[in-house]
Design a protein that fits this description.
The chain is of the alpha/beta class and about 240 residues long. The protein has one domain: 3-Layer(aba) Sandwich (Rossmann fold), CATH 3.40.50.300. Helix content is about 35%, strand content about 25%. It has eight helices and ten strands. A six-stranded mixed sheet has the order 6-7-8-3-9-10, with helices on both faces. The protein has a four-stranded antiparallel sheet with strand order 2-1-4-5, with helices on one face. Helix 6 links the parallel strand 7 and strand 8. Helix 3 packs across helix 4, helix 3 packs parallel to helix 5 and helix 4 packs across helix 5. The chain is globular, with a radius of gyration of 18 Å. The chain starts with a strand and ends with a helix.
Length: about 240
């Protein structure tokens, strides 16, 4: 069974003559341990798709199945619990709390879910170690580089052992070296730790770290390409085939 199954997903904002269709009858599946990049021009529905998969927004029609359950039909309380326990989020601007150190930031999802502080801190420290921050556990965000802050955000996304990680332009605020390191880390999350990863990006080089690219155009799927390890050149060729270059 796929971790994520999206069926005929549509999102319309506004109504009547002011209605804007952000997503238009999109269907796809995401398997356990699969790393998918989502690409397309600005306004094509990439972030809308991520928000609907993550339960941050509700569809106009269609449904999102997470591990066999229709999250689009859940009430707000259950949906919040599902997001906290089964979905990890990574954003462009890290969204770390400035007054908390790395362990405290990474432990936050567990604390909010009622976990014991000591156990939450232990699990957070373990994930920070795995993402390469063993020596920075007590550092606050202003004491970390952008790449290190994003590693804290990845650890925070993983700490509840979710089924899927959703990353919205996770390298958009980083330099080239840090961007490649974060893309490598997300590939490791899928390959070694078995999480499904869906990442929105505009950068072909970052997209080349994925196993598969979903191309969106005008709210619909314009292409779905499996990558063979050909780097950014392969991504550019796929973009040309679907008319995005």
């Amino acid at each position: 069974m796929p971790i994520i199954k999206v069926e005929d997903l549509t999102k319309v904002y506004g109504s009547s003559h002011t209605a804007v269709t952000a997503l238009d009858h999109v269907s796809l599946t995401v398997e356990k341990g699969e790393f998918i990049a989502v690409m397309g021009p600005s306004g094509c529905g990439k972030t809308t798709l991520l928000n609907l998969i993550g339960g941050l927004d509700r569809p106009t029609s269609g449904r999102v199945m997470l591990d066999g359950s229709d999250i689009s039909a859940l009430n707000d309380t259950v949906l919040t619990e599902t997001r906290r326990r089964k979905i990890g989020f990574v954003f462009q601007f890290y969204n770390l709390i400035p007054v908390l150190n790395a362990v405290e930031n990474a432990a936050l999802p567990l604390i909010l879910d009622g976990a014991n502080g000591g156990e939450a801190g232990k699990r957070a420290a373990d994930w920070l170690n795995r993402v390469g921050l063993k020596e920075r556990l007590t550092s606050r965000p202003d004491q970390l580089s952008g790449g290190q802050q994003q590693r804290v955000a990845v650890a925070r996304a993983l700490v509840a052992e979710p089924a899927i990680i959703l990353a919205d332009e996770p390298t958009g605020n980083l330099d080239t070296k840090a961007s490649n390191e974060i893309a490598d880390l997300l590939a490791q999350v899928a390959r070694e730790w078995g999480r499904a990863v869906v990442m929105v990006t505009h950068d072909p080089k970052i997209a080349s770290h994925a196993q598969r690219i979903l191309f969106l155009k005008d709210g619909a799927i314009a292409g779905d390409t499996k990558l063979t390890g050909g780097g950014s050149d392969e991504v550019h060729q796929a973009m040309e085939k679907v008319g995005l270059l």
